Amino acid sequence: MGMDAATQKKYEAWKRRKVLKRLIGPGIILIVAMILGLRSCRRDESQEIDTENMLDTHSDSLTDATEESGLVTTDEATEADPTVATDNDQIREPIVFCGASEPEDADILSHEAALSYLALVNRCYRLASDFSPDDLSTVNVAGVNFPFGNDVHQLRETAARALEDLFQEADANGLELIMSSGYRSYDLQVFFHNQAIDSHGVEVARRISAIPGHSEHQLGLAVDLTTPVLEVYGWLHEDFSTTPEGIWINENAHYFGFILSFPPSREEDTGIIYEPWHIRYVGVEVATEIVNNGQILEEFLWYNN
């Protein structure tokens, strides 16, 4: 994935400065001084030396010498890898995603860090088993809660109100969304993950169900959605993406501060299969930037430090 517009602008400005630094060295300064001296002695304009052409010639000479030596310039190395970003002339390494990382080696987020709306929970970062947000609030929307036989779900206060607004707008557009899951405690994630292991084995379970401590649901910011259109009322299926509700969510969730945490073709980076039903609250401004740039949260955080 390429750089966003702001990073691309910084990168292009950095490249121009690097070219100038490479050209305007001691040798160029001497040449320019000689040119100015000649101009002061020779008034015949037809004989004036074209400084710009000399600079271009010198630049070409440097390029030729570099090519002959087999060396690769910093600019060329950066262009060869579009995931490299720059900031204030400092080159940052390409993003290293966590999809293939061992969850057992993950760093534990502090309670303070876990309360950030941009808290990153994946195979590199996990939550303590006793972490639970202190501002959980019941979400007043249509819901199911298999296998527990009720329709009550919670999210953190801001996310809960945002989801209510999202449901209200969806309803105004003739759509029927159902909330299937919200906040889950560590112990509840153990229950769901063990079910996945029993049904599919460990390897597949890790692709379809977050390992306890690595679930965005424990943050109180993640939501699973479904719709009766699927005729699997309350269950989750990739076909959700082709329903009017799923299409609307994909195109409009960011207006309410939500993103798709596990978009298509990103399993290698996230470690989780495509989940069109799973959205996560990050705030309207961040969600809009992520969607506009075709990013996942890891990329947004990397590009924005």
Please outline the helices and strands.
Blueprint: H1 5-23, H2 26-41, H3 51-69, H4 74-80, E1 85-87, E2 90-92, E3 107-108, H5 111-114, E4 125-126, E5 136-138, E6 154-156, H6 157-172, E7 178-181, H7 186-200, H8 202-208, E8 222-226, H9 244-252, E9 258-260, H10 267-270, E10 278-281, H11 284-292, H12 297-303
Parallel strand pairs: 3-4
Antiparallel strand pairs: 1-2, 5-6, 7-8, 8-10, 9-10
Shape: globular
Number of domains: 2
Distance between the termini: 17 Å
**CATH C-level category of the largest domain:** Alpha Beta
Q: Just name the CATH architecture of the largest domain.
A: 2-Layer Sandwich
List low-pLDDT spans. Answer: 17-30, 40-83
Keywords:
single chain; 305 residues; alpha+beta; Muramoyl-pentapeptide Carboxypeptidase, domain 2; 2 domains; 4-stranded antiparallel sheet; two-stranded antiparallel ribbon; 10 strands; 10% strand
Give the structure's gist in a few sentences.
Helix content is 43%, strand content 10%. It has 305 residues and is of the alpha+beta class. β1 and β2 form a beta hairpin.
Would you mind describing this structure in some detail?
The chain has about 300 residues and is an alpha+beta fold. It folds into 2 domains: about 5-90, no CATH class; about 105-305, Muramoyl-pentapeptide Carboxypeptidase, domain 2. It has 12 helices and 10 strands. It has helices spanning about 5-25, 25-40, 50-70, 75-80, 110-115, 155-170, 185-200, 200-210, 245-250, 265-270, 285-290, 295-305; strands at about 85, 90, 105-110, 125, 135-140, 155, 180, 220-225, 260, 280. The strands form 4 sheets. It has a 4-stranded antiparallel β-sheet with strand order 7-8-10-9. Strands 1-2 form a two-stranded antiparallel sheet. Helix 5 (about 110-115) links the parallel strand 3 (about 105-110) and strand 4 (about 125). The longest helix has 19 residues, at about 5-25. It is globular. Residues about 15-30 and about 40-85 have low confidence and may be disordered.
